[in-house]
Amino acid sequence: MAKNQIKNVLITGASRGLGLAYANHLAEKGYNLILTDISSTACNVYGEVVSIENLLKQLSEKTKKVVFYEADLMTQDGADNLIERVKKDFDTIDAVITNAGGDIKGDDINASGGKADKNSFFIDYKDHESIFKRNYYTCLHTLRSVVPILVKQKYGKIITVSSVNSGFGVPKETAYATAKAAVVHLTRCLAVELRDKGINVNCIMPGPIKTGRFMATLKSRNSHDLKDLESTSRLTRVGNPEDVCPVVEFLLSSDSDFISGQIIRVDGGLFTHPV
Fold first, then answer.
1. Of residues 22, 46, 137, 176, which has the active-site annotation?
2. Which of 54, 106, 130, 217 has the smallest C-beta neighbourhood within 10 Å, fewest atoms?
């Protein structure tokens, strides 16, 4: 295996939603998976996975090595502790996908679109702080722990995950959209800082995607919301996780070696203005 070929991939927020989709897709492609989430029970909140044990069994049938770690990435100590545990099980960390995120209550199906005031400017300060911890600081802490490893080995791929909400003014989504916008700018700045280190840094900006959480929040809203989203998309449908996974695969591959500092919107043409 070539020195700079990606084999071990760390995925945060990996037990549900897009993180789970990335794990399944990359396992099928033969990547070794380093999976983490805030708890081992987070996987079954929306019924996407029965248990972590069941998930690991399924993934192990597709690839050589899969390990799950509980970790609270909202603190730097939590991220540092995670990486110390990972280093005991894996010889390298070749790539990281900072997918972890959430709202005031990460498992609240009414958050982020369910109840309009959950992410507005007028929520309590502690709730603003909580949203930033979940969406920006989980990314920052993870990267502060992983980047020194990538710099030392002189190669690596970093994929951050933002949201289309970060690119424009969203009614009553101020807290979430601002936190995700911070992820975008972190991506751009880090790409510049690491440009001579052999490390690619890019960001995926998904639009509405049919994850378990998306479908759960949809049930708590107006029944016409899905049709409204579909009619607004240039491709006349809401995305599936399978629409995003090939983009992740591409950014991990050698085909993307000349791409860094880019924000890639995956939203079915929902928005066409520059990022």
1. 176
2. 54
